[in-house]
Design goal:
Elements: E1 9-15, E2 18-24, E3 30-33, E4 40-41, E5 52-57, E6 60-65, E7 73-74, E8 77-78, E9 85-86, E10 92-94, E11 99-105, E12 111-113, E13 126-128, H1 132-147, H2 152-164, E14 171-179, E15 185-192, H3 200-208, E16 213-217, E17 234-239, E18 248-255, H4 262-289, H5 295-304, E19 314-325, H6 328-332, H7 336-359, E20 362-367, E21 371-376, H8 385-399, E22 403-418, E23 423-428, H9 430-441, E24 451-454, H10 455-458, H11 461-464, E25 467-475, E26 484-491, H12 497-521
Parallel strand pairs: 3-4, 22-24
Antiparallel strand pairs: 1-2, 1-11, 3-5, 5-6, 6-9, 7-8, 7-10, 10-11, 12-13, 14-15, 14-18, 16-17, 17-18, 19-21, 19-22, 20-21, 22-23, 24-26, 25-26
């Protein structure tokens, strides 16, 4: 029996742990998307505002991808953008990770039209209709199980268990696998009535084409061929785009003989569960990194699988920024009934400072009571980290005018610090110490300066495009043995170039007599006063 002309359709939508079902008559059009005005609103970031349109034309229902960012897939194959595609009963549309739409025609029970991966464009195969509501129930159950996991390993274990417990899809065995390649494979979990023997060819194909489900026929002897959707036992394997130090995570499933219409649901259920697991892993990784770095860097680290908290510290090029608010002690020295308002005020400052740092792709290493220690160029390297730190420093000075800052750049040891039971990401080395000492040097009783930095910062081309640098002079900050050529960073145009050059030359002339005296006395220390030296340009604006 063929499909009746212009049938009413039921659209089943599932995302996260939620689902919705809408009945559409032939004279109705539906838009699915993230926008609240959509016929079916899906509040998921990967779904476009207007993702896909469903409409009936010439007695045929069609779907049109509206130029969505994530794209739309039907039975695993991408739909063309802005081009209507005819729909058939049982079609499964993927609108990105973890979002599935199933089309159900209100046709008489029995044989209906269902397109599978091997069908041609002109003659879709006639097979028995499957139950979309049952598939959605499996998806929601899998989503809940994955959402309950608190570690990446538990996410994949629960995903494999969800595959094995999906009744009616013909899944005989399911496994979560971690693979460096098709040979070096670790089985995280295995469910089913078979020994843990897996199709190497399916794993190889999945690793070559991550985020696509590889489907292979498996003969009685166990060899994997390349025939798709044949009437025999077959393998579905889905590798994720998420990397980790241990390898790539895959979900693997094998189906029974003569699966009939469940074959299509089988393969796409594996894909959906893998996408749900990937999304959960991404969220877990982002949460772990977001306390240190900007959301964009957190997302990058989550995709790369770089677990910075578990790595051995390494030398990396970075720019370090220390900021301290002046007068903080008097600000917090208040009765208990006023502490709340002071706390809110301080949190407001810290929120704005953090945003300024994140806007320049920086990392908040720690809050130091009334101050901040930030770094740029870690955990992910970028060429303009020095300029980024200067821009962030200028922004921070605007947010908290009554503050002092110190900056330096160079090689830092970056990685986890602390004990096994309690660790944090940190940086240490001479560069860190210099930046911290320069911040202290800016105190009113010393240099009385706003943003102090080293020559490395002041001579950087990118930094010079962001700020003007006024030479202070050669200084030996407390706690350091060697002299540091110190500059003050100010907004561009603060002083005319000729006046800035004159002040720089004057600071050098002031140092020459002291240098002569030190040579005569055989003294190795550079300045006569260790806490300041000549004020130079910083003291003569």
């Amino acid at each position: 029996m063929g499909v009746p002309a212009a049938p009413t359709i039921r659209v089943h939508v599932a995302w996260s742990d939620r689902s919705r079902s809408v009945l559409l008559a032939p004279n109705q059009t539906a838009v699915i998307g993230r926008d609240t005005t959509s016929t079916i609103c899906i509040p998921v970031a990967t779904v476009s505002r207007q993702h896909i349109r469903l409409e009936c034309r010439a007695d045929e229902w069609s779907a049109t991808d509206l130029g969505s960012r994530a794209g739309t897939r039907r039975q695993g194959l991408p739909l063309p953008s802005q081009s209507p595609v005819v729909l058939f009963d049982g079609d499964q549309l993927s609108l990105g990770p973890g979002v599935m739409v199933v089309i159900e025609f209100t046709a008489p029970a029995g044989t209906t039209m269902l397109r599978t991966l091997e069908d041609s464009g002109e003659s879709p195969a006639r097979i028995s209709a499957a139950n979309p509501a049952e598939l959605l129930e499996h998806v929601l159950k899998a989503s809940r199980a994955i959402g309950q996991a608190s570690t990446e390993r538990d996410i994949w274990l629960n995903a494999a268990r969800a595959l094995a417990e999906a009744r009616g899809l013909g899944i005989a065995t399911a496994a979560a696998i971690q693979a460096k390649d098709a040979v070096r494979v670790a089985v995280l979990a295995h469910h089913g009535d078979r020994d843990a023997t897996f199709s190497r060819r399916a794993i190889e194909q999945s690793l070559r084409t991550p985020d696509e489900t590889a489907i292979f026929e498996r003969s009685a002897e166990g060899a994997a061929g390349a025939t798709l959707m044949s009437d025999s036992e077959f393998v579905a394997c889905h590798a994720t785009m998420l990397a980790s130090d241990e390898g790539t995570n895959l979900l693997y499933a094998e189906g029974r003989h003569s699966l009939g219409s469940a074959r299509t649901h089988f393969a796409h259920f594996v894909e959906i569960v893998a996408q749900l697991a990937s999304q959960a892993v991404m969220q877990l990784r982002r949460a772990r990194f977001s306390r240190y770095v900007s959301p964009s860097i957190a997302a990058l680290l989550a995709r790369e699988g770089t677990d910075t908290l578990e790595q051995v510290p390494q030398w990396q090029q970075a720019a370090c920024l220390f900021l301290d608010m002046q007068g903080f002690s008097s600000l917090v020295d208040v009765p208990n009934d006023q502490v709340g308002s002071v706390h809110q005020r301080m949190r407001g400052y810290m929120d704005e400072l953090t945003k300024a740092i994140f806007d320049e792709q920086g990392m908040v290493v720690e809050f130091t009571g009334d101050g901040v220690f930030a770094a740029f160029g870690v955990p992910t390297a970028h060429d303009d980290h020095i300029a980024a730190s200067i821009r962030a420093a200028l922004a921070a000075k605007r947010i908290v005018p009554d503050s002092r800052l110190g900056l330096d750049a160079g090689a830092c040891l970056f990685g986890p610090m602390g004990a096994r039971l309690h660790a944090k990401l940190g940086l240490f080395g001479t560069v860190v110490n210099r930046a911290s000492r320069l911040e202290q040097l800016g105190r009113a009783e010393r240099m009385d300066a706003g943003i102090l930095c080293t020559r490395t910062m002041a001579t950087n081309a990118g930094a010079q495009a962001a700020a003007q640098f006024l030479r202070v002079g050669m200084v030996v900050p407390r706690g350091l043995q060697d002299a540091v050529e110190v500059f003050e960073a100010v907004p561009l145009g603060t002083l005319p170039a000729d006046k800035a050059n004159t002040l720089a030359a004057l600071s050098m002339q002031l140092e020459e007599p002291r240098g002569h005296q030190r040579r005569c006395a055989g003294c190795r220390a550079v300045p006569a006063r260790r806490d300041g030296g000549p004020k130079g340009a910083a003291g003569r604006r």
